[in-house]
Amino acid sequence: MSMTYDELRKSLKGPVHLVMTPVTKEEEIDFECLKELIRVQVKQFKGNDCVFLAGGSTSEFYGWTDDMFKKYVNVVVEAVNGAFPLIFGTSRPGTGYSIKMSKYAEDAGADGIMIVNTYYHPSTDECVYEHYKAIADSVRCGVVVYNNPITTKLYIYPDLMKRLSKIDNIVGLKENTDKAQMFYRMYQTIDPNDMNVFTGLGESFFQYTALHGSRAFVSDLANYLPDKAFEIYKAGAAEDFKKLTSLVEALDPLEQFKGRVASRQNVSTALSTYLPVGGVPIYQSFVKEAMKIVGLPMTGNVMRPMYNLNSDEIKELKGILKELGALSS
């Protein structure tokens, strides 16, 4: 741990970069490729506000053994090497198991940990509070709450979140609501001196949350179009909302593509057509294939049982990225 939890709270700004996981044919983590990927991205992001978020859903933690997770943590800490704030997803279904993983990440050098809502069994509000408090009490580093009802079927409402925010080292909230009014209420309820609130739904939702003063957003775009991710952040931070909206609208061909792929896979909820990152099982493959197309170190597919784009979809994606200027030819 190189940051205090208060320093981490203040550093939660800019694109929150989702670290993708290179994978071998045997569905093991390709650690050598992972090292190279992070070193390239640290160089790409230099001079910008950014936070590295590793080991969560997008990183495919659910496909790993504990030994894989521990080696992953060590490799990522070494590769980032203090260049940016580094947070690891350490949630597990049980409190004690989450504490074990959280302490490992902290001891290895994480600046913070991210804990998703309790999952598998439904929990009472008091059980949720005690879960987070026990984890926060077990570490000295900053804790980020991941309020994600899509994967957990549980939502932490503003009153309970305010209680959590009063625990000293719970310093951030990755808020996954797709309702602008709910985000506004959460943002208004939480004292920013207690907890830094940011959207988990990417650039598309940042155009709304930036209006309320939020200055961070989870980004898969930073993996394959980092200049555009940072441009969007800077427009929001400067409160140039006309430019921010224009920049986000320019990315709509990517959102439309994700929606088409999702629809062909019998995932045709209204959510999937405009917020593909929100639980639709194609977004990880989309990001990995985009990274390969733009020439970043990335190996393998997405771990089963998640969906992998087919050759026709990859060809279509390449054409869209070319139109967006991601490719020179």
Automatic annotation (TrEMBL):
Keywords: Lyase
One of the Pfam families matching this protein, by short name: DHDPS
The keyword Transport is assigned to this record: no
InterPro entries: Aldolase_TIM (IPR013785), DapA-like (IPR002220)
Keyword Lyase appears in the UniProt entry: yes
SUPFAM superfamilies: Aldolase (SSF51569)
Similarity-based family: Belongs to the DapA family.
PANTHER family: 4-HYDROXY-2-OXOGLUTARATE ALDOLASE, MITOCHONDRIAL (PTHR12128:SF66), DIHYDRODIPICOLINATE SYNTHASE (PTHR12128)
Protein name per UniProt: Dihydrodipicolinate synthase family protein
Organism the protein comes from: Diplocloster modestus
